Structure formats: C-alpha cells, structure tokens
Amino acid sequence: MRPANIFHIGYQRTGSTYLQQTVFYAYPDYMLHRGTGEFFIEDELYAQGPEFYRAMRADETEVPALIESHNGLCGDALVDRPYMAERIKTLFPDAKIIFGIRSQHSIIPSFYFLYVKGGGTLDYASYLRLVIANGKFAFDRMIGHYQDLFGSPNVLVLPFEYLQQDYRKYVRRFLDFAEVPRSEGIRVVNSPMKERQPDSTILSMRYANRIISALYLDSVMRLLPNRTARRLRSHYNGLMSAGLRRLMPGTDGPSGLDTAAMAPVIEEAFADSNRALAARIEPTLTGLGYPGLDAPVVQTAMAGD
Predict the structure, then answer these.
(1) Rounded (to 5) percent helix, strand, coil in the chain
(2) Distance between CA atoms of residues 271 and 258, nearest Å
C-alpha cells in the first residue's frame, strides 16, 4: 500500500518547530519526516520533476505516512504562496494538508521579527500596511484554496492557541488526522516557547539592515544563489543578535513597535477574513482572540513568541 503524503504548509510562529522537531519524530512506526520541502519552493529543483524529488530522500522506510514540512511552503514574511497548492497537487493529488494558524494580533508582530531578521528595513507600522495590501495572513484565502483543491476533510487547521492552552489537545488533533491509533497515546511533552527577542534588538537589527542597504551590500547578496544568501544572512543575524544581547541584556529600549496602536488596524483588516474562515473549518476560533470573532484584543507579545 502506498503511504499517505501529508504536507505541513505552515505558518511559522504557530508551533511549526514543535511539530517538526518533536512530534513528527515521536512516532517512527507511523510517519517519516522527509525534510525535502525545498523541492516545491525552489524553481530549479521543482523543474527536475518527481523522480528527482523521490531521489532526494533515498532512505525512506515503510511507514503509513510521509510528512513534508517546510516553512517556505506558506510563503515568506511579506507574501503568501497559494500556488504551492498546485505544485503539490500535481505530484500528490491525494495529499493531506496541515495548516497552523494564529491570531493576527500576535502572528503579525512575531512575523515582523522574521522580516527584520531577513534584512527588512521598514518600521512596524509600514510593514503592517504592506502585508495587509499583499493579502498576507488572510487565512481564509490560503486555507480555502487548499480545501477547494484537496477537499475540506483533507485539510487540517491547528490553531496555535490550542498548543498554548493544552498541548495534548493540539497533538491529538494532528495524530487523529495522521491516523495514528489512539492506543499509541501522547508520546511528547510540551516544549517551552522560543525566547522573546528584546524590542531593542529588533530596532538595532533594522538600523543595521539600513546600513547594509546604503552600502549596497544587499545588492551583492541578491547576486548569490538563494541558499548561499540565506546562509550568510543567518550567520550575520546570529552574530548581530548575540552581540546585542551581550551589550543590552534583557532590555526593551525604544523600538517603534507600537502594537497597541496598530491593534485596531489589524482588527479592521482581518475581521471579514476570519469570519469567512470560521465558517469553513471545524475547530472553533471563538474565544482565542481572532479579529472579528472576539472583542478587540490589545497585544503586546512580540518577536520571539
């Protein structure tokens, strides 16, 4: 019997690391995390075709489900990538899909850190206006697109807030979807959330990005292969973050990250999208702080959450 193909699309900052590094590896008799999702994201890899994809992981074992999880499948810090659905559908028409979501009041500030970490120079308010204009975080569009292609029963939505409230409930929803027998129980424990980056660190990184841009170093980075550029950026961010933490341990200097002032903007921008999503999915989002579904929420949670 052919194994099921399960694709974890994202989003980042919704418990994706917990799934990728803990849950997917806790049931080796039932699933294998391939770790080759870049095939669908990188055009030059995808052009090689299905045989190349299968050869990327030659040590597959006999398991009921193969899992592919890559944060880039849902998009980047500025745009979503709904066209990934067609790429997956072409190779695996019967695939099952997992989406992690999170209230826009907390996921957008958290994604802003990813944007700055990746070289972004916009302040938070400008970043917010850009992602709204791009349709980023309009979950009903992304999830609805996958539901239309693969069928609603084959698309699982995992709210991050479930993981915060009761990790066993969060894990159980995934295991049932992956058809792991309930007799196997919950083999994992909850993991602590990533340490929050001080606002001063984010601000300093943004200023450093502006210096790099002014020196045209970002133009040089764009000439490099994608993987090389990402690797260099990762090293730079690590050094910058470590240096700033040493210089300013635990401080929250002035940052311009006025999440309270931007909360009404988020509420207005995503209320209709969330109401449309709530009508399409099974888990209730009421009471979890999603715009349009609860009383307006003022969020102060930031980047590392």
Answers:
(1) 50, 10, 40
(2) 20
Mean model confidence pLDDT for the chain: 85
Phi, psi of 107 (to 5 degrees): -75, -35
Place of tokens 């939505």: 157
pTM of the entire structure?
Answer: 0.83
* Start-to-end Cα distance in the chain: 41
Enumerate long-range contacts of 185-190, CB under 8 Å, 24 or more apart. Answer: 187/26, 187/27, 188/22, 188/23, 188/26, 190/18, 190/163
The rounded distance, in Å, linking the Cα atoms of 7 and 91 is 12
User: In this predicted model, what pLDDT tens digit does every residue of 68-109 receive, in sequence order?
Assistant: 999 999 999 999 999 999 999 999 999 999 999 999 999 999
Cis previous bond, 11, omega within 30: yes
Range in 44-58, 122-136, 192-206 the model is least confident about = 192-206
Q: Alpha-carbon distance 280 to 106, whole Å? A: 22
